[in-house]
Amino acid sequence: MPENITAPEKKKRIFSAIQPSGTITIGNYFGALRNWVKLQDDYECIFAVADLHAITVRQDPKAFKKNILEAYALFLACGIDTEKSIFFIQSHVHTHAELAWILNCYTQFGELSRMTQFKDKSAKHADNVNAGLFTYPSLMAADILLYQADLVPIGADQKQHLELARNIAERFNGIYGKTFTVPDGYIPEVGARIKSLQDPSKKMSKSDENANAWVAVLDKPETIMKKFKRAVTDSDAKVCVGEGKDGINNLIAIMSSATGKTADQITAEFEGKGYGDFKTAVGEAVVEEFRPIREKFDQLIQDKAYLEEQYRKSAEIALKISQRTFDKVMKKIGYLPR
Ligand code: TYM
Questions:
Q1: Of all protein residues, whose CA lies closest to atom 19 belonging to ligand 1?
Q2: What is the pTM assigned to this prediction?
Q3: Residue nearest to atom 24 of ligand 1 (CA)
Q4: Is residue 121 annotated as part of the catalytic site, yes or no?
């Protein structure tokens, strides 16, 4: 290579995944998915539909199958581009479940017991506190570590799981020498913690029984408007960020995520206007953000052959990349080669 030409800097690698619940919410979108789309040009991105994680709660087989394909189509509609990124379905790449078992043996019972999501979910599904729900973070660690990811774009609620993945990686590296890249989180400044529209002290969650608490990316415009109009606020009647104004703080965060405006700009714009006007404006901004996505989704979901081609192609590449890490792990532990 001529002396004055330097090799291009190697792009950092990103991994992230989302569970295919029937409802992908605006929390998933603003907290994670939208960043995935933005990061595709500057990073080497690997994304997955986390369908193995999803069976920690009981799934109806027919609905589950439909939800997995719909989640795949929806993420493509949001702008995941399989020409730029690898985008596969987790259960199609067997190294994930295999490495998860191995990592379970390097994860402590005490660490898993401290996970707030485990505590919340086991309280919510008291009749089905299965071992998978408990060891879920080891599978998530396997997802990330298999690809030697540098960065993991997530919402704030997944931070504790990512910390655990880092600890597992460091522990394994400490015993066997450098095997895994220790990943950093990538959490957006705005939108990392979108709250419930009905109880803004809680995060917006698709598993909330009150459907007015969450807004799905694929909700119809009239449904979105109705949900925002019903959003819980306070009696202060001033559109600004403040303590004790969780509902309005949340609506400002959503408005800011949807329009790119800062909280100060939004406050100035709604000076002297009531909450009714503000809620309508937030609803309209969200409807506009998701209109093209909904249209694209409606097209994509008709073309099963295209979707299949995309996820198969990506799974093949993902398997090759992840197998390299997996083989290295097996060798370090002392397993005989297959
Ligand atoms: P999941 O499917 O619950 O959520 C997917 C992503 O959406 C983010 N998110 C939110 N962000 C802001 N506000 C909210 N109200 C909100 N609700 C959800 C989550 O932080 C997440 O980034 N275990 C993961 C999926 C997973 C994964 C991984 C993620 C499996 N393997 C490897 C990263 C790396 C989960 O259940 O996310």
A1: 155
A2: 0.94
A3: 18
A4: yes
Q: Is 267 exposed, middle or buried (0-12, 13-18, 19+ CB in 10 A)?
A: middle
Identify the active-site residue in 66, 84, 206, 332.
206
Q: Is 144 in the pocket of ligand 1 (CB under 6 A)?
A: yes
Q: Which of 14, 28, 161 to mutate to test the pocket of ligand 1 (most atoms within 8 A of CB)?
A: 28
Report pLDDT digits (tens) over 25-35. Answer: 999 999 999 99
CA angle 69–75–78, rounded 5-degree value: 140
Single-letter amino acid code for the residue at 192 = A
Q: Give residues with Cβ within 8 angstroms of 230, minimum separation 6.
A: 197, 198, 212
Kindly report, residue by residue over 236-263, the tens digit of the pLDDT.
889 999 999 999 999 999 999 999 999 9
Domains and CATH numbers, the chain: 13-191+304-333 (3.40.50.620), 211-299 (1.10.240.10)
Do 96 and 90 form a contact (C-beta atoms < 8 A)?
yes
Q: How far is the CA of 110 from the centre of ligand 1 (A)?
A: 23
325 with 141: CB under 8 angstroms?
no
